[in-house]
Amino acid sequence: MDLVPLKLVTIVAESLLEKKLVEEIQRLGAKGYTIVPARGEGSRGMRSVDWEGQNIRLETIVPEEVALRILARLQEAYFPHYAVIAYVENVWVVRGEKYV
Amino acid sequence: MDLVPLKLVTIVAESLLEKKLVEEIQRLGAKGYTIVPARGEGSRGMRSVDWEGQNIRLETIVPEEVALRILARLQEAYFPHYAVIAYVENVWVVRGEKYV
Amino acid sequence: MDLVPLKLVTIVAESLLEKKLVEEIQRLGAKGYTIVPARGEGSRGMRSVDWEGQNIRLETIVPEEVALRILARLQEAYFPHYAVIAYVENVWVVRGEKYV
Amino acid sequence: MDALELLRLNLLSPMVLAFALGVAARLLKSDLAFPEALYTALSIYLLFAIGFKGGVELSKTPVVLLLLPALATLFLGLLRPLSGYLLARRFLGVGRADAGALAAHYGSVSAVTFLAALTFAQGVGHRPEGFLPTLVALLEVPGIVLALFLAKRGGGNLGEAFREVLTGKSVVLLLGGLLIGALSGEAGMERVKPFFVDPFYGALTLFLLDLGMVAASRFAALKQVGFRLVLYGTLLPLLHGALGVWVGHLAGLSLGGATVLGAMSASASYIAAPAAVRIALPEANPSLYLTASLAVTFPFNLVLGIPVYHAIAKWIGG
Amino acid sequence: MDALELLRLNLLSPMVLAFALGVAARLLKSDLAFPEALYTALSIYLLFAIGFKGGVELSKTPVVLLLLPALATLFLGLLRPLSGYLLARRFLGVGRADAGALAAHYGSVSAVTFLAALTFAQGVGHRPEGFLPTLVALLEVPGIVLALFLAKRGGGNLGEAFREVLTGKSVVLLLGGLLIGALSGEAGMERVKPFFVDPFYGALTLFLLDLGMVAASRFAALKQVGFRLVLYGTLLPLLHGALGVWVGHLAGLSLGGATVLGAMSASASYIAAPAAVRIALPEANPSLYLTASLAVTFPFNLVLGIPVYHAIAKWIGG
Amino acid sequence: MDALELLRLNLLSPMVLAFALGVAARLLKSDLAFPEALYTALSIYLLFAIGFKGGVELSKTPVVLLLLPALATLFLGLLRPLSGYLLARRFLGVGRADAGALAAHYGSVSAVTFLAALTFAQGVGHRPEGFLPTLVALLEVPGIVLALFLAKRGGGNLGEAFREVLTGKSVVLLLGGLLIGALSGEAGMERVKPFFVDPFYGALTLFLLDLGMVAASRFAALKQVGFRLVLYGTLLPLLHGALGVWVGHLAGLSLGGATVLGAMSASASYIAAPAAVRIALPEANPSLYLTASLAVTFPFNLVLGIPVYHAIAKWIGG
Ligand SMILES: Nc1ncnc2c1ncn2[C@@H]1O[C@H](COP(=O)(O)O)[C@@H](O)[C@H]1O
Ligand SMILES: Nc1ncnc2c1ncn2[C@@H]1O[C@H](COP(=O)(O)O)[C@@H](O)[C@H]1O
Ligand SMILES: Nc1ncnc2c1ncn2[C@@H]1O[C@H](COP(=O)(O)O)[C@@H](O)[C@H]1O
Ligand code: NA
Ligand code: NA
Ligand code: NA
């Protein structure tokens, strides 16, 4: 079996941003994504009360250059004003062509 | 502290498959798993409407050979017909014997 | 863009422990965390029935030494009596200073 | 009341309007959304309550009265998947798996369509038979099983699908509620009436609001699947509806009862069938069967079909 | 009844007490928590039910009777964001974005405060006009839009925020319910009354229990944002409340109706406004506006404000 | 009515049947499942409603009438963990931690068993005292604390466990509801009766359906833990039940009231106790205490125990 190395980008963000973030990553080249509702705490305080909305945890498997583009876009337009973090990992998948 | 390297296999699949997938991975050697409800989008379209059911995100920590067996089984019996993806990562755990 | 390597510690534990675990990791140096409700099965049996409570999946991005401290603390005080597992991964983030 | 007046009455019921509101909300891209738990809670409540009410009625009905209608229902349960399958193969030109999937949906029944028809019939002033929910439970299972059988002839794990359908939550809740109602009777009913009976139509209204959103999110798929599917999803209900009314009439149902049986027969499942089909026929295209049953047939029955079946029932019975 | 007696009556209503219980639970660090789905389900139910009841009343009201009150409401919807903005700039000394965010909250309306006022007025023996929910829907939108406009003069994507507000779930449910109520009228009401009307105040009580917990979890933020915000969050409602009563009186509302319009005018939004502001003014500080509207103004109105607006209404109208 | 007739009456109530349906659904491997949010919502509703109704009754009860029954309840709350602990040590032969865990469960109380007993007593035609829910709140806490104390003698963080129990959601909802009911009295009750009183038994029926599924999923564990646990989980309730009836009789409760107190005394907690025990005695085996209280004692009381305690009450009181 051929395992193809790719990047997994995980974004944790306030849930209001869901629609926007999905549009951004698709525009930047992501072919799919998976979202899980989450709660959490960081420099902008606790995010678990209904009123402010919870967080989402969005992950997308992409080639390295798409991963970098996504991070750059987040840094430019989201990190300053919104409760968002993002990180990248190495993953291996079977059907590599599915993600590019 | 002794950190033991293992593989983390993550499967995102339509939720109808939960029972089947759990049986498969246990049969192939997984000693445990963690499931989180998810939604998402990929080549088979958006999966967030109640009716088609949502996705699940299943992860299991296993030795490398079990990871490969799981991927092979998915490729054979699930990738063609179902909305499923899977990826592998390197992780380190404390109690290595718990997972083999 | 500068990608800074850090550690991602993921803890899967019975949900009753949430408050305690959050206090522990913050005391040990974590600057933030993300929690997702989960269910699962391991050596202590199925955890999905309401009564025993479900699991949580807690992840926190931290420097390596904090990761090791967290694992050590878990091994000392939680692994023996509670349904808990933990694993560590390598991740890369943009704003490295945010996590130390 | 003439036909137009009846159509107006149906269109202006809170339930049909709530469905329309759900459609509108989705088309306007509103952020309105029901949590999955609310949708599931409402469906558990509705199915159990239908069963329970039916069971209490059943406890007051002599079994013999039930015999003919039950036979009629079984007949419908066996015939409808056949017509659904054939029409799908010939008219839509799809393969075995897709035809079987469609047949499973149009061979089973939609509990919400049943309820809408019941409300309509009662609103018009009829008193449909109390044991009709029993028939819903009867109609739900055989059609799916037969359809899967048609699709798989020879291969596959039909057994698993059969178990899946029989122990599926809609059957368990309907039949379980029925049994509980039949066993606890009027004495039990008295205790739980303010929960399972009085607020029922309000809860159904809320459920239809959600259903409207779900259906609308399938409208986009209509273009892909094409115009023939729309025809399939309206002609088949008309055929099955007329058949249901007629068979119901033969079995001795009242005018209201025949109307409701017609609507049941015309309806397509979207709870039990999709789950069973996805397991047993994974190669069938969900876009096809979900779009047909949810985005075409369900609204068609809700808005136009039910008054039509009523008109047919009047014409046959009067 | 004298003023003190009325205050007591208000304080000892199950709703206000449930709010207090929620606050206490949070302060005692209880593990009591409402699942998110329950909170969402309750808010969907309450908003739709308010709209629906209002719609049914509307179907019985000649349009002319509605004209003046609607104009009065629009006037309030345009004036209140201005006063909210100015007071925030001058008295709190915050920047444009924060002032705009506060103005959006105090320019919109809180449906729960409306309900509490309605209950109070009915409890005292008044019969507030049936079309008041229509006014809630009217008051919800313009204030937010104007406030965002104030904050952004020149730049930014106001359009998106405007769409967001208009298709936001609270507006869709309120207006949608209103429409459904108006179209289905008394006949529809009869069917769904045991769900949307009778249990309404009990569901509201449960909702307020949750709201109490949410408000209390913001109390800690009060220290950070400072004492001036507390003043802002109590003086502005008093001002807006008196204005609302007076304008309502001029528009011909009954004593009960003027009281309720006063409370609406005094209230600050915490469903529609936060979502719109977060999108359109991300640089505004949520701690400021959420704390003011949820932890200061809402409890203030619930406990003290409503009886005060009633006293004003009596004084003006009597 | 003779004993058999009463047993039949109990077995055929919708609540007991719903529990059985839940068990059956799990044994049949049905995919029926309640979303966690629904289960939590129902338990919040039930606990608050019990408290509230009790509070309203309390507002009409002279305090002196409450004194003796409250003392009796406290007595039960202190004695039962002792018997639970001793029997676990001697008869089951388990260690301190496990014995303490079991004692905490059988020293506390199950609100649902209380409700089932109340329904039964009312169904038979008795009028149990209105203040009984106050006693439920009283019985819930002391047993758990004493049991943990027994298990930990000397070490451990009892304080934390104590806080945990006192601010646990079941105590907060019960006592909070009680307080709100007592303060708002009949006037408050009138407003919220169609939500908290009328639909109560229906909601309880749904809850029992879920409880049946949970209990059944523990049946498999029965084999592991062995036959002695089944004996423990039936003999202890019989002992505690008889004791409760007797003490209730001495304290002047009516026949219905003594029956209900007996059932309360016979019941084992499965909401407050498990949470407290897991924190304070993590080394205790959950399989043991959850299986005993949920899969043995609860069904036993529901089906057989309650009629038996009623018979005892008749025999003592008659
Ligand atoms: N160190 C961290 N590890 C894991 N998740 C984090 C961390 N810091 C922040 N988060 C998540 O990111 C969200 C936004 O972070 P912040 O902008 O720092 O408030 C938080 O609510 C957490 O869910
Ligand atoms: N590139 C991707 N990154 C993350 N998740 C994905 C990706 N592609 C697909 N998925 C997830 O896998 C599910 C099935 O994928 P598919 O079979 O491509 O429709 C989707 O609903 C997503 O939740
Ligand atoms: N091998 C594994 N892979 C992923 N998750 C696991 C694994 N083993 C255990 N878990 C999770 O950790 C929880 C506690 O594990 P245990 O203490 O082994 O019962 C389980 O309920 C699972 O959610
Ligand atoms: Na980052
Ligand atoms: Na793959
Ligand atoms: Na580990």
3D architecture notes:
The complex is a heterohexamer, with 3 copies of chain A (100 residues) and 3 copies of chain D (318 residues). Chain A is α+β, with helices and mostly antiparallel strands and 100 residues long. Chain A has helices at 18-27, 64-77; strands spanning 4-14, 33-42, 45-47, 55-62, 84-93. The longest helix of chain A is centred in the last third of the chain and has 14 residues, at 64-77. Chain A starts with a strand and ends in a 7-residue tail after the last strand. In chain D, helix 4 runs parallel beside helix 7, helix 7 (132-152) runs parallel beside helix 12 (255-266) and helix 10 crosses helix 14. Chains in contact: A-B, A-C, A-E, B-C, B-D, C-F, D-E, D-F, E-F. Strand 5 (84-93) of chain A pairs antiparallel with strand 5 of chain C. One adenosine monophosphate sits between chains C (12, 40-44, 47, 55, 83-85) and B (30-34, 59-61, 99). Chains A, B, C: It comes from Thermus tengchongensis. Chains A, B, C: Pfam families: P-II (PF00543). Chains A, B, C: GO terms for molecular function: enzyme regulator activity.
Outline the secondary-structure elements.
The complex is a heterohexamer, with 3 copies of chain A (100 residues) and 3 copies of chain D (318 residues).
Chain A lengths: L3 E11 L3 H10 L5 E10 L2 E3 L7 E8 L1 H14 L6 E10 L7
Antiparallel strand pairs in A: 1-4, 1-5, 2-3, 2-4
Chain D lengths: L2 H9 L2 H14 L8 H23 L4 H30 L3 H12 L3 H14 L7 H21 L5 H9 L2 H28 L3 H26 L1 H24 L4 H12 L5 H9 L5 H32 L1
Helix pairs in contact in D: 1-14, 2-10, 3-7, 3-9, 3-10, 4-5, 4-7, 4-11, 5-7, 5-13, 5-14, 6-12, 6-14, 7-8, 7-9, 7-12, 7-13, 8-13, 10-14, 11-12, 11-14, 12-14
One adenosine monophosphate (AMP) sits at the interface of chains A and C.
